Every structure is written in structure tokens, then in C-alpha cells.
Amino acid sequence: MFNHDSALTETFAPIQHRVLVLGHGGHGKGTLCRMLYKEYGERSLSSSEAAWPYIWPAFNEATRRKYATPEIGYENRRQHRMLCKRLISLLNTPDKTTLSKLILSQVPIYDGMRDADEYADSEHLFTLKIWVDAMGREGTFRDPSMQITCPREAIIVENNEGLPELAKKVQNLAKYFTTE
Fold this sequence. Notes:
By secondary structure, the protein is of the alpha/beta class. It is 40% helix and 11% strand. It is globular and about 45 Å long.
């Protein structure tokens, strides 16, 4: 169904760590990743962003061509979390590490893995795991598309107090992103 990039190798982007940022939808994973970029210059790719060129044709069909362009479909993907999760799972078939390897071949930070099988097969590729948790913030929820629970070895970043507090927590991650 998907055209996997035959040039994909296991050559990963250089960084002190290969990072997996996890957490439920809407809890601030993307915000944390943008802050990591601003603070340390480390780029990230979200699962949806990296998979989109591969899953767009099937997404477009499944949504009955509701969105005129891939860009409009991408902007509305959150309305279709379960569909996107299923399509990413198909992209990762039979090799559950496909998306992880694709992302790590381009950037050092994978933002937003959701599938438990993908995690089980890919966790060894990452040297650092960060769990973003905003369950104490009003209006947040447990995303039903999220099958992964917080790994024991993950650094937990609570995101319940707003952007200034989250920015301070990103600064506290310096030892993982600097070589000084």
C-alpha cells in the first residue's frame, strides 16, 4: 500500500541523544519540541509530519476526498486521530521500525509515537525518552489513539502550569542537549 523509501538506511542524524517525545494528544509534545529547537537547535519531526507524504493518498480516500489538498488535510488531521494512527500502523507493516528510522535519518527527535507495537520494536533506537504530561490541566484528556504508557526510564515533563513554566523545564533538560 505504501511506497517505502528504498534509500532509507540506518544512518541517524548526529546528536548526543536520539530522543523520543511521548504523551497524549494535546499535552504539549509539539510545543516542547519547538522549545527544544529554540533552546538547543535540535530539530524534530512528528509522526504525522514524517508519515504524511506516505499516508495522504489513503487518508484522502478514507475521508472521501473531504480535503482539497494534502496541506488542508494535514491541518485537519487531529479530527481523524484514529485514522491517522491506523495508516501509520500500515506504513510500519511489516517493519514496525520504519517510521522511527525514517525520522531518525533526518532529525534527532521523534515527536509523537502512539502505537505500542511500534514502540516495542523501536525503543532500542532511542537513547532518551521524554513523556509530556498535562493531565492536571483543565481540558486535557487521554487520547484514545495513544497505546503507549509512560516508560519507566522516561523523563516526565509536567505541562500543567503554562508556557513560562514549560520553558523552565526545557532549560532543565540542558544536560541532555549540550556537551559542556
